[in-house]
């Protein structure tokens, strides 16, 4: 199975500052069709997960442009610019290239 | 609005069985594959099983293969997860989600606790 490793696991940030989360996969996530099926989820406290970003860098509907995704191959990053209070929660990367589909351990973002 | 609503989570004893459900609304349920994913504090998010839009093909994680069965009833816009031979490590919040491996959206989850 593809192992997804996130860092850091805990990320205290100051309101208005930026935050970056790293996600590394144990194998390249470039599919045979040339697409990289790496996505990001946000889980706010007490809520179910919500997809934020799909195929590395595409924001889902309603996601503020403060969120951006980047990366390639085995190395990916989620960046939150100008962190707001509503961004508190746990962020997960997950891959849909190799079966079985797997998730990162999650990164908890909190306000300092 | 697209919604998924799980139900059926309860407290069960080890070795017991349980069937949980997920009902979709706001979209053409029969046109979408569906999946179950569970979340535990220890193992995080784990994909468990998926079923095609018409229910003719299923897939399972090794951790539940042979114990869990996914099915669907498109006339009721509902997908099910039959869980047999429950173990303490099956204690988790179970989510349904649409369109594997895109996993969007997610239901609110249902808590299954396996304990004596």
Residue stretches of chain A low in confidence (pLDDT < 50, at least 5 long) are: none
State the strand order across the main sheet of chain B.
Answer: 2-10-9-4-5-6
**Shape annotation of chain A:** globular
The number of helical elements of chain B comes to 0
Question: Largest chain-chain contact?
Answer: A-B, 22 and 18 residues
Q: Kindly state the percentage of residues in helix of chain B.
A: under 10%
Order of helices and strands of chain A: EEEEEEEEEEE
Oligomer: heterodimer
Give the rounded overall mean pLDDT of chain B: 96
Strand composition percent of chain A: over 45%
Which sheet architecture does the biggest sheet of chain B show? 6 strands, mixed
Question: In summary, what is this structure?
Answer:
The complex is a heterodimer of chains A (112) and B (116). Chain A has 112 residues and is mainly beta.
Structure commentary:
- The complex is a heterodimer of chains A (112) and B (116).
- Chain A is an all-beta fold and 112 residues long.
- Chain A has strands spanning 4-7, 10-13, 19-25, 38-43, 50-54, 58-59, 67-72, 75-80, 89-95, 102-103, 107-111.
- With 116 residues, chain B is mostly beta strands.
- Chain B has strands at residues 3-7, 11-12, 18-25, 34-40, 44-51, 58-60, 68-73, 78-83, 92-98, 110-114.
- The A-B interface holds A 37, 39, 41, 47-51, 54, 60, 92, 94-96, 99-106 and B 44-47, 59, 61-62, 95, 100-109.
């Amino acid at each position: 199975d593809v192992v997804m490793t996130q860092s850091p696991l805990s990320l205290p940030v100051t309101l208005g500052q930026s935050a970056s989360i790293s996600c590394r996969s144990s194998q390249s996530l470039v599919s045979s069709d040339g697409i990289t099926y790496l996505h990001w989820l946000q889980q706010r406290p007490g809520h179910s997960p919500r997809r934020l970003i799909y195929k590395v860098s595409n924001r889902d509907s309603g996601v503020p442009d403060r969120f951006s995704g980047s990366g390639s191959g085995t190395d990916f990053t989620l960046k939150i610019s100008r962190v707001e209070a509503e961004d508190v929660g746990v962020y997960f990367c997950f891959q849909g290239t190799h079966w079985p589909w797997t998730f990162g351990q999650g990164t908890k973002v909190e306000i300092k | 609005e697209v919604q998924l609503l799980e139900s059926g989570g309860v407290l069960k004893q080890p070795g017991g069985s349980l069937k949980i459900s997920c009902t979709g609304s706001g979209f053409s349920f029969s046109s979408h594959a569906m999946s179950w994913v569970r979340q535990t504090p220890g193992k995080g998010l784990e994909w468990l099983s998926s079923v095609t839009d018409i229910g003719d093909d299923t897939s399972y994680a090794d951790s539940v293969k042979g114990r869990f069965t996914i099915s669907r009833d498109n006339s009721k816009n509902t997908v099910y997860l039959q869980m047999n031979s429950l173990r303490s490590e099956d204690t988790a919040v179970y989510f349904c989600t649409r369109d594997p491996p895109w996993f969007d959206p997610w239901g609110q989850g249902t808590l299954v606790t396996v304990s004596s």
